[in-house]
Structures are given as C-alpha cells and as structure tokens.
Predict the structure.
Amino acid sequence: MAGDRSRSRSRSHAQSSSSSEAASEVPPARQSSSTASDDDIEDCEEGQSLHAIRPGVLLCDRFRVRGRLGTGAFATVWLCADEEREEADFDLVALKVYRAVDRYQLYASEESGLLRDAAELAESRPPSLVGLLGLFPHQGPACQHACVALELLGPSALEMAERSRSSRLPLPLLCSALLGGLRALDFLHRECSIIHTDVKPENILINIPPRSAMLDIMRKLPFGRAERIRLMEAALREGASATFCLVDLGNSCTRDRHVSVDITTMEYKAVEVMLNAGYDTGADIWSLACTVYELATGRYLFDPRRSFARPKGLAARPALANGPEHIAQIVELSFGIRRVAFPVCGWL
C-alpha cells in the first residue's frame, strides 16, 4: 500500500526510456531534486549540451547570470539580471536556456508560444501560471541556444517539502499548492484547450506577492538553493502569504494535437496513458492528485519502481515492465484487491 512505501526522488523523464527491471524491495535513498552545481560546465559536444555558464556571464546580450535555479532534461534555469529593464519589479528574471538540439529548440518555441497564447486569452495575467517575458536566441562558442525569459518565482513545492523532517508540506502551503494547481489547470483546460502533460511537485513553484517582495528575497546574498529556501521560510514565518504557480509548458500539447502518446513522469502517469488508450485533460488532474498526496504524506501514491514479495514456493518470474506493476498497484490500492500470481499471465 502507498502508506508503506518510502519516497524516492530518482526518476526518469516522461519521454526517456525507463528500466524494465522492478526496483529493489527497499527503495533507494531519496536524492535532491536539484543536484547540479552552480559551476557545472558542459561543452556543445555533438550538439547535446550547453556551453559554460557561470555567474557574471552575459546571455543574449542582455541577461547577466547571478546563479543557477535548476536543471532539467531539456534545459538549465538561471537567475539573471535584465540589463535592459529599468523597472525595479522586472530587473530579475528566470532564464531557461535550452540545450542545442533541434527538438529542444522546438520545445522552447512551443513553450513560449503556449504561454503567449495563454496570456492573450486571459483578461490579465493567467491565474497561477508562470508569466512569459520573451524568447531570445543566444550564440554560444559552438552552437546557438534558445532562451525563454520567465517571471521569477521561488523554490518548488518539492524543495519546500524536503526541508521538513517528514518531507511533508505544511498544511497551509499544501492547500495553497492545491489551489494554485487547480486554478492553473482549469485555465489551461477550459480557456486554452492545453494539456500540461507533466504536472509534478517540481513544476509547482512558490510565489510571494507582491512581485517586489519576491524580488527582495531573491536579491539577498549569498545565493544558493539552501539560502533561497531558508529566506523563503523566513518570509513566511514573518506573515507573508504564499501562492503557487504551475511552470514548464515545454512538453504541453493542445487537446486536438498530441505530440506524444507517452506523457508524464512515471509516478504521476494516468492509467489511460499507460494503456495507450488516448488521453485528455483528465491526465493532468490525475497527476495533480498524485502530486498533492506526495506533498501531504512524503510518499509516492504509486511507486512503480518498487517490487513485491513473491509467494513462497513459486518459480521466480522475470521482472515486469513498470506499466503492469504500476497498474497492479492502482488496482490494489483503489479496490483493496490483493495481487496474486498466475502461471501464464505473470504477476497481477
């Protein structure tokens, strides 16, 4: 059952090939959601990576890098000062620098296009959705990168939860994260006909309005992940109110044009996606429900990487792919049906 499983942060991206071997009975120790160091250097070797980015570097002839905010499969995100903006409330941005691969450049264009469309459909700023500031090219030493400038937000709900001893998000923040996620998805689904496809704790970021309050926190030094979270917690203790915004539309699609049949990070994948039965906006709602459970309990609702004990005396079966194991967990938890072994069908 879900309550007996410990949480593990080792995961693959939705479109990465996942291991067909079941996880060990004792899940691996949870890893930090942001493991790359600020001085990580990569070459444009074979068009796969980014050139060296360090604090002080000027990107797009406009954005001065101050520190790393995060790392993903497609891009790295940097805290930058916008040297062309004089307004104090817009001088800091989050710059998402995509890897120099054609398909990743396309993701950058699609993400900025979807956010732009969402902004045009909203009467004001889209509710609980990250704001787009622009799409910019950056020429590195060996290749060109697409850069998406976004509204600066705080740490993710996952990072905030990981700070507690129980890995649980405090109830007021949990309610705020749920409300922000529902508002963002309602807007994307109802007004924009967009399916996010990658809702998870890492993609729900905290925000402290007004914007000037958030920027004041992010301006404080020394800069680093731990310091950023600590300052955010201090602001909340002093009475600041928190909201949450949904980010990362790089994998999103419209309801009438799906770009992939395999969507969503494994632990948050809806049944219809695993069965390749077609999907719609409900896949996002399923992912959000799994996300909220995880933030509330510190455990995955469904952990397809874990294995289960085989009945004594039965011959060992080959490890199943994650899909059947995942579905078996859903059936077991939802209907209280204990799994059994069938000689032909395998483990269910």
Residues 171-191 form the longest helix (21 residues).
